[in-house]
Design brief:
It contains five helices and seven strands, in the order βααβββαβαββα. It has 172 residues and is α+β, with helices and mostly antiparallel strands. It has one domain: Aminopeptidase (3-Layer(aba) Sandwich). It has a seven-stranded mixed sheet with strand order 1-2-3-4-5-7-6. Helix 3 crosses helix 5. The longest helix is centred in the middle third of the chain and has 15 residues. The radius of gyration is 16 Å and the shape is globular.
Length: 172
């Protein structure tokens, strides 16, 4: 589905979790406990966990989304430091948002560290907009969190753009 040949995106499975946890540890000061990923894969019905894998099936990034009614929340997202700046994060978001749309999501939410300019740039490119700031949100350094939304019209426009990019026939 995605326009890359060097990686593939698929649903996260139990055997991916050690690699996902390692990526999270390398990427975030406040990373999730490994048990959280087992919960996401095995028991959380709202969870839509994805991984990006390279040609040797090494996990190089992950995305955890929660689909609740028509809302898609970006819960956790990271790319291994060795794989950054190669479009993998973009590919994960494309896939996750597209699959969420197919399941009925019509709006998406996330929060991001105010100082994470690479992530903010990616989200803005997709169409997310800052709607609020949570002051001193992150416990490790009191950094602000930007609350960002992808509203229905922007989400729909993004999906239509992906369908054209991927040459998916539009439904009449």
């Amino acid at each position: 589905m995605i326009g890359r040949t060097d990686i593939s995106i698929r649903r996260m499975v139990l055997t991916d979790i050690p690699a996902v946890f390692t990526i999270d540890q390398a990427s975030a000061a406040l990373y999730w406990p490994q048990s959280s990923y087992y919960f996401e894969v095995e028991r959380n019905e709202a969870s839509r966990p994805w991984v990006a894998v390279d040609s040797q099936q090494r996990v190089c990034g992950f995305l955890v989304l929660w689909l609740i009614m028509d809302e898609l929340h970006v819960a956790n997202f990271a790319v291994h430091p060795d794989y950054r700046r190669r479009g993998i994060g973009d590919a994960l978001m494309q896939n996750g948002l597209y699959e969420g749309w197919k399941e009925g999501a019509r709006i998406s939410y996330l929060e991001v560290r105010a100082g994470n300019s690479a992530a903010i740039s990616l989200y803005e490119k997709i169409g997310y907009r800052v709607v609020n700031i949570r002051r001193h949100y992150y416990q490790d350094n009191q950094e602000d969190a930007l609350m960002m939304n992808l509203e229905k019209q922007d989400y729909q426009t993004y999906i239509l753009t992906l369908e054209k990019l991927w040459m998916i026939p539009t439904k009449k």
